[in-house]
Amino acid sequence: MHKIIKYVLHDIFRNRILLAYVVLLSLSSFGLFMMNEDVSKGFSSLLTVLLIVVPLVSILFTTIYFFNSYEFIELLIAQPLKRSNILLGVYCGVGLSLLLAFWIGIGLPVLIFDGTIVGWYFILSGSLLTMVFVSLAFLASVLTRDKARGIGISVLLWFYFTLIFDGILLMVMFAFSDYPLEKLTIFMSCLNPVDLARILVLLKMDISALMGYTGAVFNQFFGSSFGIVLAVLVMLTWVLVPIGIALRIFKGKNL
Question: Where are the beta strands (DSSP E) in the chain?
């Protein structure tokens, strides 16, 4: 499997799109930090990039790369190799390349301007978010052989988690505003990795009040050591479950 990972990494590192992604993240990070004297304001602005751009690029790049490598994957399947090793090899290669791009583009500027616990949580949240959407991209890719349909599924997943889900959450909170919704809100937030990443960063920035009337509840729950560990574990679950389902589908799929 390590040979597949090595090949995928070598192939992706020659891709100009990945280089453009690194440059975009770097320019955004350095620009936002240098435009704001207050580091916390720079983090607040960069949070939009973290929650919108990083998931979008991760899921689209992964989906497109998977379908562009379909012939290579079929060639590997013809060899005496386990399908699980083939898919995991490609998955690890794509995931590592996007993680490296994120660490260089956002991680380094964050540590340069603020090497505190806030910066490290920002990097942790972005890394987990990257892998979550890589996993979702693989799940979307193995569901169909049509490239356009696969990209469409990926875009819908990104759109749902970044925009539609928040609308659903607000509708639920409005419809049942007469009832205590603190626990339900926390549970629903665990169903969205983008929300979890945002919550972790905002709480560490000590501006949970910006999250609305449930900010105090999130601060009480996620602000504790147990809450933070649980939130990270939930995000790891979001990484493992989609790729696990994708593996199961890929093993029985007739290519």
Answer: none
200 closest CA partner among 171, 177, 234: 234
Residue 154: how many other CB atoms lie within 10 Å: 26
153: amino acid identity, one letter: I
Domain ranges of the chain: 2-251
Q: How confident is the model at residue 204 (pLDDT cuts 50, 70, 90)?
A: confident
Provide the residue type at 159 as one letter: F
The set of residues, in sequence order, having a beta carbon less than 8 Å from that of 133 and lying 6+ positions away, is: 54, 55, 58, 59, 62, 157, 158
Percent of the chain past pLDDT 70, that is, above it, reads 93
**Closest by Cα among 191, 209, 205, 200 to 229:** 200
- The two most distant CA atoms of the chain are separated, in Å, by 61
Nearest by Cα to 195 from 149, 161, 145, 237? 161
Smallest CA-to-CA distance from 132 within 220, 207, 196 is with 196
Distances in Å between the alpha carbon of 3 and those of 10, 82, 89, 152? Answer: 11, 14, 8, 31
- Number of neighbouring beta carbons within 10 Å of residue 187: 10
Whether the CB-CB separation of 12 and 65 falls below 8 Å is answered with yes
pTM for the structure as a whole = 0.92
